Automatic annotation (TrEMBL):
Organism of provenance: Glaciimonas soli
Name listed for the protein in its UniProt record: Flavin reductase
Gene3D superfamilies: Electron Transport, Fmn-binding Protein, Chain A, Winged helix-like DNA-binding domain superfamily/Winged helix DNA-binding domain
Keywords: Oxidoreductase
Gene Ontology MF: a single term: riboflavin reductase (NADPH) activity
């Protein structure tokens, strides 16, 4: 929009054409979120069989009856000669973990099928596996579309899976996660804050949400610690040493304070007496204080807690589903490593 400086020229096509900025146009188009496909075909060119495949996000549905789909092929594509003669082509709607494949089929001058296991479909078109959906199409129309050819095909056969699809948004691969409807989100905030604070902006802050999520998860883990006779602090010691053995008292104290636990040395003594920990004193160390390790019993209890933790996490994440779990992991990683 800001490319059109003088609004009086809006009615003048020649003036508008001059103001048209190709890069901005691409940028504007990239705001339209799409899936990602690879379209493949096979044809005989100059007497030899040629397999082609191209990453395309211009794919779209056209008609249900007859079942028609379209995509547009750049006239400069190396694969153009094959698509212009092939009677059939296959569209693969990629699944969320196939971004590597999308990059491979967006490259020129490489053997895109090298090392891939393919089947052959209608018209011998190569069929890739692991996709969300595959459609085998008969070429129905080819239209001229500027620097592209609009390929319309009738879907003769298709198969699909539950694998979440790969998404393309503003030049990046993405995943699609279900959005909370704005009304729903506002209603939820009112319920969770019991009307105490109906200021949406304040209730929408991330810190209490993260804290709440952490405590809900940690509470369940703590229960599993209690089942093994461990109080909060002991549970923390066991977890810490399971992940990072051979810590000195000073190092443990530092972690205790950081995590909000009371820095009590007698907890360590007590756990040592109960056979969960043992101390190894390094004679060369000046301090002579020793380092804390888990005993075989300590490892056994820690493993049981880890297993219970995995189950608790799996139960919680099963409520989110595959895509939201990936989205949560992605966002948390980005949050922790900005
Ligand atoms: C996400 C994405 C979407 C693309 N969509 C299209 C498209 O719809 N049509 C097209 O001709 N090229 C598209 N391309 C570019 C081609 O994949 C790329 O030019 C490829 O190298 C062509 O291969 P070829 O020259 O071997 O045929 C896209 C690339 C990416 C990364």
């Amino acid at each position: 929009m800001d490319k059109v400086k003088n609004t009086s020229s809006l009615a003048d096509p020649a003036a508008l054409a001059q103001l048209f900025d190709q890069r901005e146009f691409r940028h504007a188009l990239s705001t339209f979120t799409t899936g990602v496909t690879i379209v493949t075909a096979c044809s005989t060119v100059d007497g030899s069989e040629k397999l082609v495949g191209i990453t395309a996000n211009s794919f779209n549905s056209v008609s249900l009856d007859p079942p028609l789909v379209l995509w547009s092929l750049s006239k400069s594509s190396h694969s153009a000669a094959v698509f212009e003669t092939a009677d059939y082509w296959a569209v693969h709607i990629l699944s969320h973990d196939q971004d590597g494949l999308a990059n491979r089929f967006a490259k020129r001058g490489i053997d895109k099928f090298a090392g891939l296991t393919i089947e052959r479909g209608l018209g011998d078109a190569p069929l890739l596996s692991g996709c969300t959906t595959r459609m085998q199409c008969k070429t129905t129309y080819r239209y001229d579309g500027g620097d592209h050819i609009i390929m319309v095909g009738e879907v003769m056969h298709f198969d699909h899976s539950d694998a979440p699809p790969l998404v393309y948004q503003r030049g990046n691969y993405a995943i699609a996660t279900r959005k909370e409807l704005t009304d729903e989100a506002e209603a939820l905030i009112k319920v969770t804050t019991s009307g105490r604070n109906t200021d949406t902006a304040a209730s929408n802050t991330i810190t209490p949400l993260l804290g709440n999520a952490y405590f809900q998860l940690y509470d369940k883990l703590r229960e599993s610690g209690a089942q093994h006779g461990l109080n909060d602090t002991e549970f923390f010691v066991l977890n810490t040493l399971a992940a990072n053995e051979g810590l000195s008292l000073a190092e443990l104290m530092q972690l205790f304070v950081y995590a909000g636990h009371s820095p009590l040395a007698h907890v360590l003594d007590d756990m040592t007496v109960r056979g969960l920990l043992h101390v190894i004193v390094d004679q060369d160390e000046e301090s002579n204080n020793g380092l804390f390790y888990l005993t075989a019993l300590g490892h056994d209890v820690a493993q049981k807690i880890v297993d219970a933790g995995k189950q608790i996490e799996a139960d919680m994440l099963s409520k989110l589903g595959e895509v939201d779990t990936i989205a949560l992991r992605t966002l948390l990683r980005r949050f922790v490593n900005p």
